[in-house]
Design brief:
Residues 19-57 form a coiled coil. By secondary structure, this protein is mainly alpha-helical. It has one helix at 2-84.
């Protein structure tokens, strides 16, 4: 019976080594996944910053458009006043 029991011990040692290798591979993959998650988070942060920058730019454009429209209304009002005063320009 000794030969079979020694085979069992060798087989058990191989199983432990195999499980250890699998655990290492799982840990390596977990590390890779974490690195990818970190990179994705960085990209998401960059996109958020760009979106905020775009929102600021859009707000400024809106302000400039409103100012231009107000300027146009003021100019039209002045022109109307001058016409009533007899200015023919």
């Amino acid at each position: 019976m000794r030969p079979s029991s020694s085979r069992s011990i060798v087989g058990h040692g191989d199983n432990i080594k195999y499980v250890t290798q699998l655990e290492q591979k799982v840990q390596e993959q977990a590390n890779q996944i974490q690195e990818q998650a970190d990179q994705i988070q960085e990209q998401a942060n960059e996109i958020q910053e760009q979106a905020e920058g775009s929102e600021v730019a859009n707000n400024k454009i809106h302000e400039l458009v409103e100012a231009k429209e107000e300027h146009g209304r003021t100019l039209a009002s002045v022109m109307e006043y001058l016409k009533r005063q007899g200015y023919a320009g």
